[in-house]
Amino acid sequence: MIPTSELQIFIWAAGALLAALVLALVVHIVYRGLPAGKAKDGLQTIIYEMDRHADDMENHEKRAAAIQAVMDILGWRRIIVPKVLVGWLIDAEVATIRKIQQATDTPDLHKGEN
């Protein structure tokens, strides 16, 4: 059985990830509905950074570095989580961001960039 403190950390992490993805959906929806202006430019910057993050996590070397960083943080707290699970969560996050872009018809802002 998982000790209570580890279970609480898992619940908080899952809740934070879910909240971040819901926030990403809200940002995309609001962006599509706003007229051109300062607010839309600000949201475009946020969408650009989310897209950049998703692009980075599709790169195998950057994804492996992110997994290792998470494993290092969890290891410090002596929480053992399989790398496969962390990788799966990153893949799910990237897939969700891509689906949000597709569902809201938000353009891929990094097309043509390195």
Describe the protein in words.
- There is one protein chain.
- The protein has helices at 4-33, 38-58, 60-76, 83-103.
- By secondary structure, the protein is mainly α.
- α2 (38-58) packs antiparallel against α4 (83-103) and α3 (60-76) packs across α4.
Key descriptive features of the protein:
114 residues, mainly alpha, elongated
What is the makeup of the main sheet? none
Unreliable stretches, pLDDT < 50, 5 or more residues?
none
Order of helices and strands: HHHH
Q: How many distinct beta strands? A: 0
- Assembly state: single chain
Strand percent estimate: under 5%
Work out the helicity level. over 70%
Class inferred from helices and paired strands = mainly alpha
Q: What Rg is obtained from the alpha carbons, in whole angstroms?
A: 16 Å
How would you state the average pLDDT, rounded?
A: 82
- Between the first and last Cα atoms, what is the distance in angstroms? 46 Å
Map the helices and strands.
Elements: H1 4-33, H2 38-58, H3 60-76, H4 83-103
Helix pairs in contact: 1-2, 1-4, 2-4, 3-4
